[in-house]
TrEMBL record:
Coiled coil: none annotated. GO terms for cellular component: plasma membrane. The chain crosses the membrane at residues 12-40, 60-90, 102-121, 159-183, 195-213, 219-236, 248-266. It comes from the Bacteria. GO terms for molecular function: oxidoreductase activity. Pfam families: NQR2_RnfD_RnfE. It is an enzyme of class 1 (oxidoreductase). This is Na+-transporting NADH:ubiquinone oxidoreductase subunit B. GO terms for biological process: transmembrane transport.
Length: 300
């Protein structure tokens, strides 16, 4: 049924521990969201690929996994369903399917429902731990990003071990780092875009923090929200990112800087989705500029 794609399969392998950890944190909610997202995401791609007698790509499984892990645990299931359908359809299928999409489909779907249902996407949190048995409190609870904006700095140990409110997969810092090592060791992900994004984000946050502009320390900023998750799994998407080495560095810098600026100075507490789409828009131009730079060096 699925078109085999070894690279996408390796990404899936790296995401499995993160998803299992989300089940420990949020219990049946992680299972329920996946149970809605995967059938709808696969069905949406199938509708478009069937007309051309093509198989559904394994890449859609990666899209569904990333989208699921990017969801708040208490998000209504029908909203998650709308998001994955929109992401696969308008982020991928209408461009011609796998390999032709300009934007990351998981981020496209997430950003659509983030803008359409902002209240539910920013308040549907759940107390993490013990397979979701600690309960939910969407009114009085706050994520680590919201706490830092109000001057309350979370403990580094809590952030490191993922015991904080947030999206299903965004807090698994140690597992995300291990996934990055695996993806880099197997040459599945580009270290250039990953490094450029994380360093540029961390560097700008450090400058703003030590200049007294923001209250969030750099390390806490890096381990809060979805910066690491996005930096490892979405910035490195081989389809929607540039192909040239120089372009990959510039691409990562654009995303890292955009995330920091949006997070620190806009009404949105998290800027990763906007940062990814910003980078996606510039990816073809960056490849073009990198090609011209390479030709000039050869002539010289």
């Amino acid at each position: 049924m699925f078109q085999k794609q070894n690279m996408m399969r390796k990404v899936l392998y790296s995401l499995i521990p993160v998803y299992l950890f989300s089940i420990y944190l949020y219990g049946w909610r992680a299972l329920a969201i996946a149970a809605v997202v995967f059938p709808l995401g696969i069905a949406t791609e199938y509708i478009f690929t069937k007309r051309n007698n093509k198989k559904v790509s394994e890449a859609v499984l990666v899209t569904c996994t990333l989208f699921t892990l990017a969801m708040p645990p208490l998000i209504p299931l029908w909203i998650a369903g709308i998001g994955i359908i929109f992401g696969v359809m308008f982020g991928k299928a209408i461009y011609g399917g796998f390999g032709r999409n300009v934007f990351n489909p998981a981020i496209t779907g997430r950003l659509f429902i983030y803008i359409t249902f902002p209240l539910l996407m920013t308040t549907s949190w759940m107390t993490p731990g013990r397979f979701g048995t600690l309960g939910a409190d969407a009114v009085s609870s706050a994520t680590s990003l919201e706490l830092m904006r109000s001057g309350q700095i979370p403990e580094l140990t809590d952030l490191l071990f993922g015991i904080r409110m947030g999206t299903l997969g965004g807090s698994a810092v140690i597992l995300i780092v291990l996934a990055a090592i695996y993806l880099l060791a197997t040459k599945t992900a580009s270290w250039r875009s990953m490094l450029a994004m994380l360093v540029s984000f961390l560097g700008l946050q450090a400058i703003l923090y030590y200049a007294g502009v923001i209250q969030a320390p750099p390390l806490q900023s890096l381990m809060s929200g979805s910066v690491l998750f996005v930096g490892v799994f979405m910035v490195t998407d081989p389809i929607s990112s540039p192909k040239k080495n120089l372009a990959l560095f510039l691409y990562g810098i654009i995303i890292g800087v955009s995330v920091a600026l949006i997070r620190d100075f806009s009404l949105f507490p998290e800027g990763t989705s906007f940062g990814i789409l910003m980078g996606n828009m510039f990816a073809p131009l960056l490849d073009e500029l990198a090609s011209k730079t390479g030709k000039k060096k050869v002539k010289a």
